[in-house]
Amino acid sequence: MELAGRHVLVAGAGVTGKSIVPVLAELGARITVTDGNAERLAELEGQLGQNHGAELVPGLTEPPEDVELVVTSPGWKPTSPLLVAAAEAGVEVIGDVELAWRVGQLRDKPPVWLAITGTNGKTTTVGMLESILRTAGVDAVACGNVGFAVLDAVRAGHEVLAVELSSFQLHWSSTLAPLASVVLNLAEDHLDWHGSMEEYAAAKGRVHTHSRNVVHNLHEEWSARLADEHAPADARRVAFGMDTPRPGELGIVEDLLVDRAFVADPATSADELGTLADVRPAGPHNVSNALAAAALARAYGVTGEDVAKGLREYRPAPHRAEEIGEIDGVRYINDSKATNPHAASGSLRAHLNVVWIAGGQLKGASVDELVGSIAGRLRGVVLFGVDSPVIAAAVARHAPDVPVNSLPSGDDDTMTAAVKAARALARPGDVVLLAPAAASLDMYSSYGARGDAFASAVRVLRDGAGETSDGG
To answer: CA 134 from chain center: how many Å?
Structure first.
């Protein structure tokens, strides 16, 4: 990819734009950056410092005439006037992930990509994969949608990239060719961005288009379907599931994680990859995540022993099934990262008796299937946020005997009120679970801020009750 002297337009001056501009400058490109938010442009200019060589132009709706490439931030929708105008003018539009792939291919020894996408479980799986690879002595880093920009990871020169990819990022990728790829699962999410479930699925499936090892989940219909539709004809196909594995699969035998895919003779042999006790946090959805991470690590050549050790050493990130403490025999768990119904389902299914704290922005997703499937586990429900009436209606339809406390919007300390309301509904042995099934931006700056508010409210409640236990 020759960019020296070529005019490149960067769409978006946020976090992604900040990583794109230095790379383009190193490659000798002429750079224009545009953003509808003038404050973001000013912040970018301050961070780039003097002599950055980029022209900053607010609010462009069509590319300058001599622009030869547009690199967009993943949050920009394909229907954005600027991107539509670029496509109509025949200008290629790519994202930061595609740029990172092309930049990496310029190296004498390009980094190996192990790519993970799906609606839920991506961050946990990529963290498990990073832990396994590092345990095996590999120079590896988790990057992409997990928080460390993939462009920065490429520039840092790591040997292997464990890459979490969003549907937004994949939409703008065309030549990405990972050593191994997996779509963990698929459920309604980001339909406001993609326009339909089919378009959302198509974006996810692009992770497989040029992959050499295509991995899918036997228990997820969309995972198998996208592998069938997008895998290259010469790719190795590997499946994983919660049952005894057949040749070409990873699975469970009693309490063991077992590989019958990456072995010398899958028909007659298998490798042990650890035990169910090695997987943290516990729960079937995280065992599934561990098998997916193991499959990608095995594609790179990691031993079964290192897979087991890496899983044992993995520590989940905050706000993902994070136990905050126990009060009067009730455990309080923060899964603020459960930002859609599919994620909340996995979290809720890990517990028998739950007081569920939920609500926020559903982004057009339905919650009827979720509520119907976990109705028997609910001790009570506490709701807040803009779409709480939608969840309350679903509970009324599918679990009419379950008490629901809907908190008024605009409460100055809604999370404290929610935790107190949940405590009133809980009994010893129950779990109070924040698994919102919705995005947070109607009330909080991020799912992390929402989780922090929950943790703080629990600790205040615990201290007031005179308890000292703390699982956080």
So the answer is: 21
Q: Are the CB atoms for 142 and 127 separated by under 8 Å?
A: yes
Print the SS3 string covering the chain.
CCCCCCEEEEECCCHHHHHHHHHHHHCCCEEEEEECCHHHHHHHHHHHCCCCCEEEEECCCCCCCCCCEEEECCCCCCCCHHHHHHHHCCCEEEEHHHHHHHHHCCCCCCCEEEEEECCCCHHHHHHHHHHHHHHCCCCEEEEECCCCCHHHHHHHCCCEEEEECCHHHHHCCCCCCCCEEEECCCCCCCHHHHCCHHHHHHHHHHHHCCCCEEEEECCCHHHHHHHHHHCCCCCEEEEECCCCCCCCEEEEECCEEEECCCCCCCCCCCEEEEEHHHCCCCCHHHHHHHHHHHHHHHHHCCCHHHHHHHHHHCCCCCCCCEEEEEECCEEEEECCCCCCHHHHHHHHCCCCCEEEEECCECCCCCCHHHHHHHHHHEEEEEECCCCHHHHHHHHHHHCCCCCEEECCCCCCCHHHHHHHHHHHHCCCCCEEEECCCCECCCCCCCHHHHHHHHHHHHHHHHHHHCCCCCCC
pLDDT tens per residue, range 2-24: 899 999 999 999 888 888 999 99
Half-sphere exposure of 103 (CA within 13 A, CB side): 28
Q: Which residues pair with residue 136 across a beta bridge?
A: none
404-406 β-sheet, strand order: 322-327, 330-334, 431-434, 354-358, 378-383, 404-406
CA distances to 125, 180, 184, 279, 311 from 290, rounded to whole Å, are 6, 15, 11, 7, 7
Of residues 220 and 148, more confidently modeled = 220
Whether the predicted pLDDT of 467 surpasses 60: no
Q: Which are the contacts of 408, defined by CB distance < 8 A and separation ≥ 6? A: none
Over the stretch 429-453, which tens digit does the pLDDT of each residue have? 999 999 999 999 999 999 999 999 9
> In whole angstroms, what separates CA 400 from the centre of its chain?
33
Amino acid occupying residue 304: G
- Does the pTM of the predicted model rise above 0.85? no
The radius of gyration of the chain from alpha carbons, rounded to an integer in Å, stands at 23
Distant-in-sequence, close-in-space partners of 296: CB < 8 Å, separation ≥ 6: 114, 116, 129, 162, 180, 181, 182, 213, 215
> 3-state secondary structure string, 404-457?
EEECCCCCCCHHHHHHHHHHHHCCCCCEEEECCCCECCCCCCCHHHHHHHHHHH
Joined together, the tokens standing for residue 2 give 């020759």
For residues 449 and 440, the answer to whether their CB atoms sit within 8 Å is yes
